[in-house]
Design a protein that fits this description.
By secondary structure, the protein is an alpha/beta fold. Helix content is 50%, strand content 14%. The chain has 3 domains: 79 residues, no CATH class; 326 residues, 3-Layer(aba) Sandwich (Rossmann fold), CATH 3.40.50; 61 residues, Winged helix-like DNA-binding domain superfamily/Winged helix DNA-binding domain (Arc Repressor Mutant, subunit A), CATH 1.10.10.10. The chain has a 5-stranded parallel β-sheet with strand order 6-9-12-5-13, sandwiched between helices. A two-stranded antiparallel ribbon has the order 1-2. Strands 3-4 form a two-stranded antiparallel ribbon.
Amino acid sequence: MRKPEKTREEWEAHRDSVLAARKAAASTPEIKPTFNPTVQLVVPPSVYTAFQLVEKLGAEEAENFLSQGIAVAKVEEETFLTDALRAPAGPPIPEKAFYGLAGRIINKLRPQTESHPMGNLLEFLACFGNIIGGTAFYQIEDTRHYGNIDVVTVGQSSKARKGTGQDRINRIARELDSRWFADRRTSGLGSGEIVISLVRDAASGLVKNKQGELKFQVTDPGVDDKRLFISEGEFAGILAVAGRQDNLLSKVIRDSWDHKPIRNMAKSGSSQCSNPHISISANITREELNIQLKEADRFNGFGNRFLWCYVERQALLPHGGEPLDWTEEVKELFECVQHAQKQSRLYMDRNAREMWGRIYKDLSKSSPGVVGAVTSRAEAQVVRLALLFAILDCAESISSDHLKAARVVWDYCEESARVIFGGVLSKEQSRILEFLTEAPRSAQTIRKDLFKKNRKLEEINSDLYRLISFGKAIEAKDATGKPVYSRIGE
């Protein structure tokens, strides 16, 4: 049976709804979940507006098409948000961390990847810092700080897309220095002795020739290039090796971070490297890390050599992002590498020295427990990050802009450590927890009665999810079925 024709009023109402949909589509290019501003669901730029669909397909077919599309999108969004809610809320993304050339590269990559921009930034800085080698440094008393940094990205699971961003940065590094990428990167470490062997110095000694005469000659040509980038897809492997009794790996990682000599005095043959330039980039889940990182390594200086970066999936790109052309950026990076090779000791300019004097005391403050132990090299980490930002500017000295960017990156890493290592609460979270002691409360009540509507609801929800993940609070339903939150007894 033929469907009855719509009345004029019905057509005008339908037209108005289509125009309203078109206006809404033009004014909202992104769909953002309200509970966490760091998560974005990106809408492809080529999507049709509702008005275009009506013109192309007709009103009835366009309505069916949109209904089906909305249903599919809703399922994908609900799955994505459910995964995100299971994870503790990470620190907000600090836009000021994306400074200079490094920032431009990461911001160019962001729309085309599901991975976290801070994880990508630190991966890039670790690669670049290793490529430039033991060239430029900043000296504090007798200690030289070079551009080698160690990074661990930590996510709730594989869905955090830790490795996806790493692959993207690898492409840039390969184009910048193909020899380094092929010869000076390694993974699958079995021992500290293997690391030493890969950067070992030349060795000489007395050797008996065919005539039975002892002559002093080179017994091992060694490795000329002291750069080594350890790219480990699973940090758990490094922890497993470092945790073995009498294994040198933990000490090698600590000493090489300081550019101190690393030695293997084994009975089968000794080797050493007097000036290693070693960097590490690895991934791990939060649960694995807290199980496998031994108490001793948390407090013996192993943990504080790493920059800890908590990452979360940032978008839904079922077919992956578009390929990107890095030609111009690689040219700029090559100039930065050449600049670094001409440098030795860098100093801070006047403004940077004044700024350093102001922030040094704050960076030197200690925090209690594990978080304090793994973040206790804040001053040295900030200096190294600032050095890298300066080299990427082809600067002759470290400026206040370089220090500011480095401090923002460090603050993110420090806050990440609080999320990763077990729940040191922020001031706002402590206030919420105290408020929940009196009685179960809804998020809306917390916003109204505790914060007097001076905080956004999504920020409060983010704090509540973190309290739940730390085992400090629990979610339940009130008589109307709405979620309320209670403090778990100590």
